[in-house]
Each structure stands twice: as structure tokens, then as C-alpha cells.
Amino acid sequence: MRSGCKAGIIAFLKGDAATWPGIMMNKPLISLKNRRILLGITGGIAAYKAAELTRRLQDQGADVRVIMTRSATEFITPLTMQALSTHPVHLDLLNPDTESVMGHIELARWADLILIAPASANFLARFASGQGDDLLTTVCLAAQCPVAVAPAMNQAMWSKPATQTNSATLVQRGVQILGPEDGIQACGETGSGRLMAIDQLVVRVSELFNTGRLQGKTVMITAGPTREAIDPVRYISNHSSGKQGYALAVAAADAGAHVILVSGPTNLTAPDRVELIQVISAQDMHAAVQAQIASADVFIGVAAVADYRPKLVQQHKIKKDQNGQRSLTLELVENPDVIAEVAMRADKPFTIGFAAETERVETYARKKLIDKKLDMIVANNVGNTEIGFNSDVNAITVYFQDRAIDLPKMSKRSLSEHLIELISQQLIEAL
Ligand SMILES: Cc1cc2nc3c(=O)[nH]c(=O)nc-3n(C[C@H](O)[C@H](O)[C@H](O)COP(=O)(O)O)c2cc1C
Question: For residue 10, what pLDDT is reported?
Fold first, then answer.
């Protein structure tokens, strides 16, 4: 889906305005579970089919939100789409209420995919010319996620050079054009211009999430916090939610990898298609990683592994007045360094670390990259409460030995797809 996608993906190479490299797509139907699809409906006779499309995407597990153009509301009511999507339909760009809750930027950020179905000839023209004269075109302009468009119109409108040029322009910018199909049209004419059949559209949309780039590879990911027991009821831990590691596991599975997810305690549901190994402490995580690391082509250490653990774990609950003292001193000992041990192996997999820092992010990240002999490190500022721990969004910088890439604020899922693509490219270059 990402092939040459400039509208879909934005990446910034530090000090160099390089464009994001292409990403191949396709292969088997995959689940749309928890995929956030922003469905744009434009003013065409096929707009009524957006109702069925919404249901079918939801059947596959997608979370669907809807934007309608003003013309679209003449063909199908926002109330219908609100009832089906179970969310208010977004109609206006300049709506103070909407802007205060979820404006066009937030909508664009929310989406994993923007799908415009049906897309009118008028919409193709406005999108291709870079206009932002209504909510839908503005969200498409603001999008950092992929954008797919399913045109539907009279065959003469579709075959007109202007429409063909607009469509070609969008393809060249990385927008996926799904259809149209040949057949009898609502106007009674026959030709190319029908909205792609809904079944087919759902298949194509799910395919867009499968890059197939890590087919045949094993990716081991650690995620979440660890808990270091103090006594039977207390432990030392941290604020890691596991969301970033789990999102990476999904993205790696979507890319066709066999994924082993070694997870500390989280509140997250086990992702589909992923071998989940649940652990509690840093020592458990270390043992689980060591047991299977020989089979891994890629190791991504996202877990916030505790550096230290209490030297002694008390057999019984420590009582407040145990020694008649008003303070308690815990002696801590160092935990095994899970990622450093992976990176030290003679048969080391491509090894990626995460640096969650609250200050001097670049300095600490680069130091960790070098000290631990990592191939790549992903740094983020967890001191910023809008991103990082527990948040659904993140903004990161990826450091290699010789360069850095900024990935601006976006959903952890989108970031994960970018990271998996970056990793795939490194593996290909290393061949
Ligand atoms: C009854 C009727 C049916 C239409 N069907 C289509 C259509 O299928 N595809 C299309 O591109 N335009 C169609 N149009 C024209 C669009 O509605 C018109 O270009 C409109 O400005 C599109 O606005 P939008 O792109 O903002 O949604 C139709 C117009 C009418 C009156």
C-alpha cells in the first residue's frame, strides 16, 4: 500500500529532504480487527452502497468513522451512516463544536486508512489539485496514513481525460485507486465506472494492510513493563502500557512474519496471529527471550525492563512497623540486560532497541545504540504526557549509526507500520 505513497506517508530524513522509500503490498486477506477506517462518502448515486460497505468493514473488525461531503448527504442521510457506524458523522470543516472535539487534524491522525467510497469525479479533481475546500479534502491533505479511493461515476465521466489525469496523478502520489468496475450503470449505460463490488472492496482494503515484507522471517518483540517482587503483595514496576510493542507485533504479523511477543503484565488483548509468551519479571523475560532467540531474524526490545530488582524477596508481607522504624531501605541488584545479551550473540538477529527518555533524548539514545551494539534505536520523549507511555499516539526519532529519521506524531499503529517497513528495508539491504 505504501508504494511511493507521499499522500499516505510522510517521513523526514534529518538534514535531507528525502522521500519515504516505497513499500510493496498485497497477498492474503487479513483481519481488519481494530483497524481505524475513516470512510469518506461523496455525492454519487452509489453513495447508498456505503451503508453496506460500513457493515462489511465492521464485520471484519474495523472501527469505521464517516465523513460525508454536502453532496453525499443528498444521496444518503447522515443519520443512516451515524446509526450504522455508531458514531456522529463528520460533515463540516468550519464547525466550532467539531473542531473542539475532533477537528480535521485529529480525524486524519485517528485513521489507519482513509477510504473514499464512492469517490465522485469532482472529488478526484479536488483531491488531485490539492484543494482543501471541505472537510474531506482537508482531512486527505492532513493525512499521514494511506489513502484509498474507489471511484464511481458514469462511464463517460470516468473516461474523460480530465478524470483519467486526476486519477493518474493520485496514483503517482501513492493513493490507491480501487476500481472502478465495468458493467451496467445506474444511468442505463454500460462501461467502466461502477463502484467496485463491496465484497471485493473489503478484500482489497484488508490487503492494503498486508505488506508481506517479512514473509518467512521470525520477529521477536518484548513489550510492556516487568514487575520486580518486593514481597508477596508488592512490586517495583513502571508505566509502560505495552501498546507500542503490541502494535509492532500486529504490524510485523501483517508484514507476514512469525511473531513471538514476550510480554510483561499489561491490560491488552493478545493480538491475532502472534505467539504470546507472558512473563512477569525481568528474569522471566530474559529466560523467555534466551529460550527462543536463536530462531529470530529480528529482535525488537520495546519492553521497559526493570534495570534492578530487590535483592531479597520477602516471604511474607513487610509490615509497616516491622523494625519500629519510619523508613525502609531496599537493596537492589542489577537485572540481566535482555537486549544487550541479544546484540552480543555471534548469530545476532537484526536488533532494535527503544529509548524512552525524559530529557537529552538524542544523547541517551545514541549512547545506548553504541554501548549495546544495536542496529537501530527508536527514541521517544516519555516526559511529554501527550505521547509515549499509555498514550495511543507517539512521535519518535529512529537513529542508525550514520543517520536519523523523524516520524512525527501519529497513532502507535501507523508508527509501527513505518518501523516495520524500515526494518524490512534494512534486512533487504543487508542481504
Ligand atoms: C442524480 C445524480 C447522480 C450523480 N451521480 C454521480 C456519480 O455517480 N458520480 C459522480 O462522480 N458524480 C455524480 N453526480 C454529480 C455529483 O453529485 C456532483 O459532481 C457533486 O458536485 C459532487 O460533490 P462532491 O464531490 O463534493 O461529493 C451525480 C449528480 C446527480 C444529480
Answer: 28
Residue 30: per-residue pLDDT: 57
- Residue closest by Cα to atom 9 of ligand 1: 153
Fold for the domain defined by 12-208: Rossmann fold (3.40.50)
Is the pTM of the predicted complex or chain greater than 0.85? no
Of 169, 299, 310, 176, which is closest to residue 235 (Cα–Cα)?
310
In this predicted model, what pLDDT tens digit does every residue of 111-147 receive, in sequence order? 999 999 999 999 999 999 999 999 999 999 999 889 9
Which protein residues are within 6 Å of ligand 1, measured from CB?
Answer: 42-46, 69, 71-72, 120-123, 152-153, 157
Backbone dihedral angles phi then psi of residue 63, each to the nearest 5 degrees: -95, 115
Q: Which string of DSSP letters, residue by residue, matches 305-351?
A: --SEEESS--SSPPPTTTTS-S-----EEEPP-HHHHHHHSTTPPEE
CATH of domain 218-317+331-430: 3.40.50.10300
- Under-50 pLDDT residues of the chain: 1-29
| Same CATH fold assignment for domains 12-208 and 218-317+331-430 | yes
What's the 73 CA to ligand 1 centre distance in angstroms? Answer: 11
Mutate to test the pocket of ligand 1, among 39, 41, 45 (most ligand atoms within 8 A of CB): 45
Domain ranges of the chain: 12-208, 218-317+331-430
Which residues does the annotation mark as catalytic? 187
